[in-house]
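sorry to bug you again but im stuck and you know this stuff better than me. below you get a single protein, a line of residues and a line of whole numbers that encode the local backbone shape. mainly i need to know what kind of three dimensional shape the backbone takes. anything you notice is useful, everything is just below:

***
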Amino acid sequence: MSYGNEYAQESPFAIDAVREERAAFIRRTYTHLTGAIFCFAGLLYIFVNTPAIAEPLIGLWRVGNGLLVLGMFLGASWVANSWAMNGASLTKQYMGLVLYTVAEAVIFVPIIWVITGPMGKPEIIVDAALLTFVIFGGLTAFVMITGADFSFLRGFLAVAGFAAIGLIIIGAFFGGFQLGTWFSVAMIGLMAGYILYDTSNVMQHYRTDQHVSAALALFASIATMFWYVLRLFMSRD
């Protein structure tokens, strides 16, 4: 479902909006992003510490059904993005953001359980979170200060993203095909590219009524980067 012409005229692209309206759009976007991050953290804490939720998810990974979990996550991600990006109402956008936040919390349960349980190194979570936000903050500041448009990265990011999913699927099918440290480093770099792309879109290519959609795009990149920073830190121990 797409916006009608009349609605689109009422909600200009951020780059075309007056300064006050553009600033309000950016504030709303990052406020919703912050809210999504806190909700993700809260849900993840509840899920990991609720045996009725954690044990089935951990069990799926233990019996080699990680591909099933990945498929469920990708399906939820597709639905969430469809609602958030194509919905004509804020309700649809919020539904997409909520669904994606819950899906991220679910898929993070096994890795957080391993870190806090068998590994006994909860400090990895703090270190990974700090590094993720330092990278995100630096990239965000760069885009906002320079005003650079990174929309030209779209094709490269799409191809690289599909290639990464393909490698993950191959790794899930063939246990001997291990995605090691360098894959995590490459994925962190890919997510850095997505953050540049998404942040420049927030500044230039989203309409001022799409703050929830913009927050979802940023949250997706941050969460994925956090996952691979965790994997990278785990590989050191």
Observations:
- Confidence is low (pLDDT under 50) at residues 1-9.
- Residues 17-235 form one domain.
- The chain has nine helices and no strands.
- The longest helix spans residues 19-48.
